Amino acid sequence: MTSFDLIVVGLGVVGAACADAATEAGLRVVAIEPGGIGGGATAAAMGHLVAMDDDAAELALSRYSLALWEEFADLPQAQFSRCGTLWIARDERELGMIDAKITRLAAAGIAASRVDAAELARLEPALVDGLAGGMRVPADAVVYPPAIAQFLVDRALARGATLMQGRRVGALRKGGVVLDDGTILHGPTLLTTGCALGELLPQLTLRARKGHLVITDRYPSVVRHQLLELGYAASAHGSDTASVAFNVQPRPTGQLLVGSSREFDSTSAAASMPMVRRMLARAVEFLPGLRSLQALRIWTGFRPTTADGRPYLGPVPERQDLWVAAGHEGLGVTTALGSARLLVDQLLGRIPRLDPAPYLPARVWR
Ligand SMILES: Cc1cc2nc3c(=O)[nH]c(=O)nc-3n(C[C@H](O)[C@H](O)[C@H](O)COP(=O)(O)OP(=O)(O)OC[C@H]3O[C@@H](n4cnc5c(N)ncnc54)[C@H](O)[C@@H]3O)c2cc1C
User: Fold this and answer.
1) Which residues does residue 87 pair with via DSSP β-bridges, in sequence order?
2) Ligand 1 pocket, mutate which of 14, 65, 249 (most atoms under 8 A from CB)
3) 77-89, pLDDT tens digit by residue?
4) Are strands 295-305 and 207-218 parallel, antiparallel or unpaired?
5) Which of 65, 67, 101, 124 is 20 to 30 A from 339, comparing alpha carbons?
């Protein structure tokens, strides 16, 4: 068979979620992935399911997705752990940001509470003394992203999807795609190729934003929440060429995952030791005990980044039957499930649960 209701190109967490949602809607799907399922940016991710409130559209998509993630709370291979997030304020200025954040989250239906310095120290005794306080978001969680991608693809396959793994889409053509071996597939096409989007669709370029993570040996209960400094959002949404922010996650294995760094203009996947040192120095300012823990591995990944920080979700202008779901920067695990629903609703002409306008590729098309 070479004709399908939907050709999904790329099986990171976003493509996997789209294949899942499309088969749930009854579409005959073929999914193409040259490498491992969830082996791109998805494999590099921390897997933090987090409500970020700095941009209204991003918060709406996160909120929608976080509700959908609840389905995975009891799934063993998801390694879903509801650790909650503790946002940390170092001083009175940062503490002053918290009430507005709580109000924005509450308006989106997400509970968060202010934590004073004493409570912060009680919740996370390993944090350095002298912090001003913080904000706790108890419903935030973590998952294991490549396992989620595999689960979503397996579910799509069980509903009759076709998987073409080890194959790559070499070119788009009217009404379909051409694979690298010359095979032609016919049908509406959805590009979920993450950072590689520009290879097939140069009009919608994404910048790859490199990140490093360090994982330690097992130290259960040193940290209980995902810990982030309030300055993390400035690092994530700023356009600095290179930045770091304190971001530590307790894995369900007892390991600590330590981030985060962001770099534009670095194309090498090799770990940069100056950047790793800068990132760890930042982390030690908040968690001094990290210095004595054994690091096991360092890796890097590339976040697919749009100019305005919002993903492209929707039809490609001027192109019949070409769709895109890509550009989720550092929130693609959190927002994959909502992105997929929003995309499939548009594809089927159903009224989406969210206004799709802020995410339409048309906003940057020229
Ligand atoms: C260090 C780091 C930490 C992160 N932490 C978090 C976090 O805690 N929480 C969070 O929500 N997000 C996080 N992210 C962001 C998240 O990883 C990404 O937003 C998300 O994985 C993007 O998924 P994707 O499916 O769009 O891309 P990818 O996972 O990169 O998948 C794209 C797929 O397309 C395939 N492909 C490419 N070209 C072709 C072609 N021509 N034909 C067929 N297939 C093709 C690739 O092989 C790849 O598998 C993090 C990212 C990084 C780098």
Assistant:
1) 135, 228
2) 14
3) 778 999 999 999 9
4) antiparallel
5) 101
